[in-house]
Design a protein that fits this description.
The complex is a heterotrimer of chains A (102), B (622) and C (535). Chain A has one domain: Orthogonal Bundle (Helix Hairpins). In chain A, 77% of the residues lie in helices and 0% in strands. Chain A has three helices and no strands. Chain B has 622 residues and is mainly α. A two-stranded antiparallel ribbon of chain B has the order 1-2. In chain B, helix 1 runs antiparallel to helix 4, helix 3 runs parallel beside helix 15 and helix 13 runs parallel beside helix 18. The radius of gyration of chain B is 31 Å and the shape is globular. Chain C is an alpha+beta fold. Chain C has one domain. In chain C, helix 2 runs antiparallel to helix 3, helix 2 runs parallel beside helix 4 and helix 3 packs parallel to helix 13. In chain C, 60% of the residues are buried. Classes of the chains: A mainly alpha (102), B mainly alpha (622), C alpha+beta (535). Chains in contact: A-B, B-C.
Amino acid sequence: MTLLGSYLTLAAVLFCLGLYGVLTKRNAIVVLLSLELMLNAVNLNLIAFSKYGMIPSLTGHVFTLFTISVAAAEAAVGVAILIVFYRRRVTVNVDEFDELRR
Amino acid sequence: MATVFAAYAWLVPALPLAAFALLTAFGRSLRTTGAWVAILASLGSLALALLIAGERLAGAEDYSQSFNWLAFGTATLSVGIDVTNLTSLMMVVVTVVGFLVNVYSYGYMRDDERMTVFYAYVSLFLASMLGLVLADNLLMLYIFWELVGVCSFLLIGFWYHKPEARDAAKKAFIVTRVGDLGLLIAVLLLFWYMPGHALDFTSIGNVFGNDGGAISAGITTLIALLIFLGAVGKSGQFPLHVWLPDAMEGPTPISALIHAATMVAAGVFLVARTFVIFEASPAAMATVAAIGAFTAIFAATIALAQNDIKRVLAYSTVSQLGYMMLGLGVGSVVAGMFHLFTHAFFKALLFLAAGSVIHAVHTQDIREMGGLGSRMKTTAWTFGIGALALAGIPPLAGFWSKDAILAAALERNPLLFVVGAVTAFLTALYMSRLFYMVFAGKPKDDSHAHAHESPAVMTAPLVVLAALSVIAGFVETPWYGWFGEWLTGEAAHHAGYLAMIVATAAGLLGLYLGWLIWQKGTIDRKALAARMPGLVRVLERKYYIDEFYDLVFVRSLRRLGYVLRAIDGLVVDGAVRLVAVTAQAVGRLNTRMQSGQLQGYLLAAVFSVVILVLAVAGRRLW
Amino acid sequence: MLEAIPVLSLITWIPLAGALLMILLPTRNARALRWVAGLFTAVPLVLAIWLYAEYKPAIGGRPYEEAYTWLTVPLSRAGAEGIASLELAFDYLMGVDGLSLPLTLLTGIVSMMALLASVHIRKRWKTFYVLFLLLQTGMYGVFLTRDVVWFFIFFELTLIPAFFLIGIWGLEGREKAANRFLVYNGVGSALMLLAFLMLVATAGFTATPGAGGDALRFSGSYDVLLANLSGSGSQSMLASDPIFQLSDGMRWAAFVLLVIAFGIKLPMFPFHTWMLRVHAEAPPSIVMVHAGVLLKMGAYGLIRFAAQLFPAELREAADVLAVLGVVGILYGAVLAFVQKEFRLLLAYSSVSHMGIVLLGVASLNDVGLTGAVFQAVSHGLIAALLFLIVGSLYERTGTTRIDELGGLAKSVPFMSGILLTAGLANLGLPGLSGFVGEFLSFLGLFESMKVLTVFGVLGVLLSAAYMLRGVMSITFGPQSPRYDGIKEARFVEALPMVALVALIVLLGVYPSLLTGPMQPSFDPLVEAFKSGVGG
């Protein structure tokens, strides 16, 4: 149990770091990277529970792989949008990402 | 004797009503024909009224007939007619004066382009007045009571383009409506207190007449006073007398018909009709007597200082109506109704004669008149007879009826008798003033020198009314109480010769004094007026009652209206606007929070989750 | 043969059919449009008159009921014991009784008169008539349906056409007035919907015992609601289940919601401010319908739901309603007295007169209820007449401000005469219909609340003051030369004027014509008030 606890703590720390990055960074690239960090924290949780959880099973592994591939796709789409945006606005500053409001 | 004609009593109001309908529908295409329709209708009514009265003189049974007007599960409201001695007497009075006024108006209104409208209104009035007289229950009486009020309103405002006429009409309607409210509430009270919700006069007579205690004394007094309030409004008694003098803005025949002979007497008729209620309440009787006596002397003093010929007569009417109320208040229906009967003739006569004068000189100010007696002989003679009758000089009609009231007052309360006697003196005084200023002396204005007598269609009614003013009093004298016996079934008692002597002396003294002041000039009236300028002004301004009402009621109502309008705009509507503004403000605040900054949204989301988690966790710990 | 004709549905839906047909017609031909609109307004009126004449339930006449199931939604049985099936039914129920009959006829008459008066409409005739016909369907439906769901639908159906009619064809401040109208009435509808949902969910069931337990069916039928609320509903073991009982608090909540919802519509003091703007800004023919019929839906709803379903609560709250009524009477009258704009004067006068309706309802006896309905019908006719003349005058003079008009009796004697008659009817002159409604309402209330009635009667005096002030300032006095050349009413204007005056006189002289069919419908209601048992 203590081992699970330390995994979870590590994941929480990672999650908070990521969250901090997402909320505060101005550079969109960094925001995307921080987002990956948060996803990885979740992955860590899934792995930890699949090994040390109440009912250990492979489902956790499968889900992790799933998440990683989705995250990769998401990063690709995100970076693609960023590139298009950069071409149009010559900035990667998220403060200027307010198209929705206009 | 069997009732033959009484069964057709409904035709008496129906004929003028038909004339009204006809004139309203085809008014524009008829002119003099329209007048003839109205005159013939009133003649028909008169004939039928006389036939019914004749039948009753021969001792026919009372006749009544009624229909359901509105039915509920618990009660019914009915309409119906009731032919008794009292109602047939009123019918005769109304139709006689109505017919004569219709004839007279044919001359008086000849040049008016809206003559048919005039006749339509008069016909509607006659129909309503006769309906009021015949009504067999209080609700129906109230309905016609309002209808005569509205006819009076329409006719006062007949010359609609005159602002004074408009204001007078409005005032008449609203002031009398104050009284009408009293009557309406009395009807409501009676409906809920009378056994079986009956409102007909027969049942009212049975319930109140048997003093069986079906209705408590307090309620009885209340009902009586409320009915009297209605009578006060209609009959121009103090403090609701203010509309009647202003009502003189209407055409003069109307003043004679409505505001002297018939409608204003409806108040007296109402009290007489519901007299059982008053008899059951000594307090109400005392109020009626007190208000009547006060109005009589109060209006007589004002009449002394007025300069408009019709206003003098109007105040005289108010005063004489007070006299009738006094008669009723001291317990004598016979005296009150008798005076109503005689007064109708001589006051209608006076108004019509005054109309004849106005027709000739085109002014109503008596200071501009004078010396008309030589040029308008018939008018002057008939006016003189009317004035003497009003002053109570024997053996004219007014003497006998006034004597009956004074005698009844003397029996009940000497103070009321004194007030009555003083009023008789004042009456004689202002009538002699009026007569001398109008008919005696020299013309004040050259244009009046060519004044000439009115056409026969106007003087003939004067002569008829003058004759009636002479003879109408003989139906009830101290030695021959036929009228009283016929009306109430019991002989009226007279107090002997004291009242008669005092009344005659007061009348003669008034006439003599008037002769000294306005004819002979022994007493200088300018010096007299200069000695008491305050009194003269107060009398001329009618005791400032109009001004007082304007200040207390009209202006304060308007001020209240302005205050409420502010409240309606600021508070009632403001509360709604506040809700709207608040909603808008919240919306605007929310708009500002939608900055488009993704990170901002996310932060809000994170905070919300934290708060939710804390709330759930905190709740578990609780 | 005649028995099979669904008269009520025809009355309700013919205007809608007319509206649909009209959409297909060419826009330019104004004359044809007017004739079609007239035809589709006249047919329901004729049917309504026929219905009024033929409706004689007391002697075993045809009851005129139509009932079809529109659609049913099966619900899960929720595991309750003793329930075989559970369904939510939307029924199409139409019916008529002594309460709705006079108002249906009023709707027909006022709609017809308003249609004749709509000659003032100068733009977009087609849309106007389409919306006008839609409005009629809504109004007829409100009075003729016997199901709260349909009542709500029809009620909303009146709002939307009225909103556009005010907002497009009104005077200067029309858009604001239309907004006010929609917002206020929207709030009222929301409250009403809430109350209806509470009622249907708890008291709208009928239980049919069967083999596997009761078959429960929920619907919004008036009769079902009435039966369940008064405790004489379906005899089922479930009926005593607390789920199907409105607690006292819930009963009161539903009652208060209904009173407020219909109080806004009536309008009851202090919810009257929206109506002033509508009266002042809407086109005259729409104000005729609005003051003549739409406001009466408030009175109808108040009696139909608040009074009929909750007599015990009404008995408790009668004092409050009566006080609100008297306040409304006096408040409206005093404010009418100081208005400078004749249309606003009439608006406040409506507030005052609707206070009288409230008094009649609060009286809790048959006299007062008759008075309330009579007053509603009579005020509908009188208000329609007054606004008809106001519209005609406005068309000629361009103003209805009291201080700018005067002496019109000289150039337009006919219209002035009608205006005077309408004014006299409005101030309750006996012999005209206004008096009967007022008198009966006061008479009814006087039984229980004497002092309050006396205050209410004071309103009669004030109404004389403000009505005469308004009418006489317009028609009497010296005439301004500006109005010398104005024309007398055309035939198409004079016809509805004369017709309305004739009706007002007829009802004033012979009120039994209107009260006759009402009586049987009020008897059970008055019984319920007396016994204090719901229902």
